[in-house]
Amino acid sequence: MSGGDLRVVVEADGGSRGNPGPAGYGAVVKDTAGEVLLERFAALGTTTNNVAEYSGLIAGLRAALELNATRVDVRMDSKLVIEQMAGRWQIKNAGLRPLAAEAAGLVAKFREVTWSWIPRERNKDADALANRAMDGETESAREPREAPAPKSWAPPELENATRLILVRHGATAMTAQGRYSGRGDVPLTDEGEAQAMAAAGRVAGLSRDVGAVLASPLARCVRTAELIAAEVGGLPVTVMDDLIECDFGLWEGKTFAEVQEGWPREMAAWLESTSVAPPRGESFQAVAKRVRGAMAKIVQAYPGQVVVVVSHVSPIKLILRDALAAGDAFLHRLFLDAAGVSTMDIWPDGNIAVRSVNETAHLR
Predict the structure, then answer these.
(1) Out of 39, 169, 226, 312, which one is annotated catalytic?
(2) Is 88 annotated as a binding residue?
(3) Which one of the listed residues 11, 102, 245, 266 is annotated catalytic?
(4) Residue 159 falls in the annotated catalytic set
(5) Is it true that the peptide bond before 20 is cis, omega within 30 degrees of 0?
(6) Region Disordered: start and end of each range (predicted)?
(7) Has this prediction a pTM greater than 0.90?
(8) Same structural domain, 179 and 120
(9) Catalytic status, residue 157
(10) CATH code where residue 42 lies
(11) 301-317: pLDDT as tens digits
(12) What is the pLDDT of residues 151-193, one digit of tens each?
């Protein structure tokens, strides 16, 4: 089944008899009318309930991709998984972070994913499949997943991975003054030009075999990207509209103190939830949605290549938050310098490895 804009429902579950104990997962993909399109289930050996639940989610997302779905409504009776994947809860268990990162990589391949908690009685199909797996049945369309508890770890092979070199643009007058700078098309300062040239040298040091240089449409990013492209072989700069900065609405050009004084309640709500937008502006959830779409397009268009992405603070933070399977608090705790460089690898199966965050040695 395929279609230009196919919406499906993924119901997923997992369980462990003993926690940890013999575990298994189940996942069902349905159309919006409730007809079952695909089923997945497998045993996991000895592991925990939460690992099994995440494994069910991953299996369901993979099955949705097999159907060429573009929009997915995920429904699970695991409050933990739903809240963590929606970005409302932090992932404190280090053992779950690789699974959450894998799921986030799959989420990025869809145009839209929604997250809904449902009571167990409404998740009976996935629950039944998980129990079949724990009972030892093996009639799954997918090989069993091993629990992520290796005794040793080695860096993954780079073959087939798309390496993203994420670069924040150089400084502008707004940067120096600490003002919210969203859709306003301000140019680089002389200092910003120097920073962008330094970033270009760092990117060239990371790879001379760059396949593409992509940029937000705003001048500060395009100019930074042009300097980088010239350093790595004179590539053209490709503009991607979805890499543009958050629209800060009425806060554009204001300092934090000015916003705090003029919109104290709105600022408090904005800091509390990524679903809240500045007055006449754009929420971080909306930014995240379009940036995930951009990442999916990049990985699809440049498999196995090195791609430079020149963007802004908010999009880059959201890319790194998703890659690290972090909570929303990450967005307010991570600082990204002008012309700072971060690198990550994304594999076709959705696996992600973040290799550096906000490198700035080239700016000293």
Answers:
(1) 169
(2) no
(3) 245
(4) no
(5) yes
(6) 133-155
(7) no
(8) no
(9) no
(10) 3.30.420.10
(11) 999 999 999 999 999 99
(12) 344 455 556 789 999 999 999 999 989 999 999 999 999 999 9
